[in-house]
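Worked problem 6 (solution included).
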Amino acid sequence: MRYYFSILGGLMAMCCLNDAPAYAGGTDTITLNRGWTLTETSEGVPLAATVPGVVQMDLIRHGKLPDPYYRLAEDSIQWVGERDWVYRTSFVLTEAQLLRPNIHLLFEGLDTYATVKLNGKVILQSKNMFVGHEVDVKGLVRGENELEITFASPLRSALPLYEASGRINYPADNDHAETRLSVFTRKAPYHYGWDWGERMLTLGPWRPVRLLLRGENYLRDYPVINFNPKAKQPIEVWLPEGTIVGRGEGALRYRLKDVTGKTVYEYTGNLPRGTRGNSPYVCHALPDPQLWWPNGMGKPYLYTAEFLLYDSKRAKTPCDSLSFRVGLRTIELVREADRWGRSFYFKVNGQPLYAKGANYIPPTLMLPARTQAELSQLFDDVVGSNFNMLRVWGGGVYEDDRFYDLADERGILVWQDFMFACTAYPGDEAFLADVRGELDYNIRRLRRHASLATWCGNNEIREAMKYWGWQKKYSKETYQLFAQSYTKLFRQLIPSRLKALDPLRPYIESSPDTANWGRPASLGLGESHYWGVWYGREPFEILRERIPRFMSEFGVQSFPTMPSVQRFSRPEDWAIESEVMKAHQKSSIGNDVILHYIKAEYPEPKTFRDFTYLSQVMQGRGIALGLRLQRAAAPQCMGSLYWQINDAWPAVSWSSIDYYGTWKGLQYQAKKAFQPVVLVPNKGGDTIRITSDRMEGEELVRLEAEVLDFHGNKLREWHSGAVRLSRGIMQEDIAVPYETFFPDEEAKATRFVRYRLTVLGEQHTVLSEELYFAKSPKELRLPVPNSFFYSLEPSEDGRSYDLRLRSPVLRKDLYIECSIPGVHLSDNFFDLLPGEEVCLRLTPRAGYTLPKGLRPESFSFLSINDLQTR
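Solution. The predicted structure is:
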């Protein structure tokens, strides 16, 4: 089945003021972020509070709660989620402000069971963390105003729902409690615990609270801009129901501006009542439309759409306005029968896309603690690592607007799950009504973004219904209830709301959509979560055979680096089975499986530091092999999203970037595996596959090989004939003289091949490089690293450093450790070739600056060579 979709952009231009000016038309926004207090109950002692925020953040700041991420603090913080909390503030409005025709309070996010009072009167009761609320308070505000928000314990609030269900203890195994109440509450599932996260039930106004002062007519929602390049008038501007509020008459001016600010199209029209939501407000063409492309395929070009609302067509001053960015592009999700089964891939602007990226989880348990700089850092990381897609996983939250703005700007497609994961959910009328409000709010909020590629109903629930043993664990009646609720939610409610609000964007009912990792024959039928590697303890090499149509999850765990471990533990904790390390390892099988994979390929670790290092080498090399093999299988496989890019707290996990922002070995390896052109040796090493998704024009290239020993002596050279590297997704196999490279077992243990793909006629232009070893690292006879040279110098820009390295012998999987927090190295966990100097750039992570006079003593080095010589 083929889905077609095209769209749209956005960022609303709103002025966030602490003191609104005299009314001059338009909407004035007062952000209520000052003067808040927090008490445990209405009788408690007030503490100064931060809004947006959650209770735990303020308790930590006031010394009432320990650092929840340090050592064994998890148990000591659970009481917070068992109690009720009250936030209060006051605000003053002038006489002129009180005369505004429309005054609303906007609560962008309340976590979770909240009762709001304004001047002593209840104006809102909310029970869904994922929904924003706009409340008309025109008749309630006065000069001096008191605002109070009471947050009830999510556990006590959900208990009556559990009782009403007949005490069904749902299969929410990641809810770290004996009675699993999480399914009854529309709160981030991961707050209740996960197999990579601690349990922390936050409460509070986790997104901004604002006062909106408006005129009689105003713009309440974004218009929708569709792009259909096949139409004579390819750009359609729609005004969905509720976009404009007021008398229903007047005029609207629409302008489309290019990146220089030049207006490329303008239209002004009346607003008769019949135009809203029933037909386009205007359709138009552009003489040379610039398309929005994902990272690596072209530029993510964004126009700016501007809307000016007038009380009448003759008025000169608008009564309201908004603007947002618009990306013109088409996207299709292609699911069609073919020779491998049924395809699963995306087309952007008619071009097949190989999706490259990872699964994304919330970056912290206390969501308002994330800074904008850290969010920007994330997108720097994914763009710099050659990603073009992130999957926003269904056990977290719908991200805030800035996340999707950055995705638009940087060309990162977003696979967006709805927030349901790994368990059955209720299907009663009240629950579905609550979810409907959540769906409507978030679909309307996010549909304008060019980066939003697809909606997905849930994570792994359809697979769980079939294969996770719920039929045996629960009674027939209870399992039938699960199945009926699943149908109501994921096959009826969600598709119906998408049809009404976002009908052109594709919908995936559940991920994985069909395939199951324990049934290899099903891998040809759609996207897959392949956990035979990890839970099945299958070797990484099995990924040569287990080729899905689209890999949306797979991974193995690793420990954080030692500098990160030191930030949440003490030296006495530095043992795999210490209580602290076990507390930060939420997978019951985790450490044993990590050791299993280390021992298969690497020397057995003798110290805790060796273990943390080898876990990252193993994870990086193993998952990168899978990424390369999946890319080499295109077009059979058309996507690789590994599990997972980030952490929600300092943990042993599947992440490639740890909680403190340090790149693990996997992030460095993924960056290389996702570069436009990669070289992939086959299992026997006698064939090299060139796999490419470059969008540049055709070039003639050739494969070159140098056979070197571990001391840098060149033993043999070879090159292929000319190969035409074409535009788009392509594969080319080249046979290599493996038997002459490795004539015997001695050669396999003492030498390696350096492959390079070079452009003919362009000296020193290398498109890709790959090192090939004929044996596993533990079987190589690596030389003793007796000497090693390195130097550190400030770079020309004065804000970073250059670290130069040189070794007379091969240093296998060299790890460079810096004792200074926040230092990022341009490369790490790599093979340092004998006799060659490497220059690495050192830059600060978000929130850090590099100290002046950074010294070489701040660095230490570890390689497989070092472990072999102990």
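Discussion: The two ends are 58 Å apart (CA to CA).
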